[in-house]
Fold this sequence. Notes:
Helix content is 82%, strand content 0%. The protein is built from nine helices and no strands.
Amino acid sequence: xxxxxxxSLKLYVETIDLITYSSIFILLSMILLPLVASxxxxxxxxxxxxxxxxxxxxxxxxxxxxxxxxxxxxxxxxTAAVISIVKLKQTLDHFxxxxxxxxxxxxxxxxxxxxxxxxxxxxxxxxxxxxxxxxWVAQVFILLLWVLFLFTPQAIVIxxxxxxxxxxxxxxxxxxxxxxxxxxxxxGLVMLLVLAFLETALGQVFVWEHKVVSIIIMALFIxxxxxxxGTELYLKRYPVSSF
Length: 243
């Protein structure tokens, strides 16, 4: 998997300009979604869950719903854009470019609905097990849920699958290539640990500026690179990465 990592890093460097433009959307999403999470305590559904209690007004609920939708739409645009960049680099032809650009809006909305569905299911799982008093069980189930459908966005953009077909493809892909998911998760964990160490070190010098640095690093490098890396891992299912 080292070769895939190096290939992903090379691709990131080669497309840094496009990645930077796309990262604007994840940066905005990272600003909006934590606002919702800090209020309703939903937090990062991938690794943790806290209760969502009905202690808000209708107006507050609508604002939260709207903010969440916009945040996930921005996240979907970013996700589809980065995976499309990888797809375009693999085709390197006018037909491939035209095909991807023509379908891009469709990719964005498919990825958006994927995030909506997976987030709703995560919240329901969390609420159910929190009601039973087993918060740690909720965390395990939510993590497994996201891992199972880890490569769904890649299946949507690379294969042009529908949402249901893409989710099934992600599960089948993991059955045959579980080591790919392990490599992806370990790489992401190492990057986050390095970022946490850097933020802690900067926190000794700066009052709040270290948070800004962390967000910028996350938006410009970690998240785009992980998407590229995940897409390259997904493409390992083919003898030659071309379409």
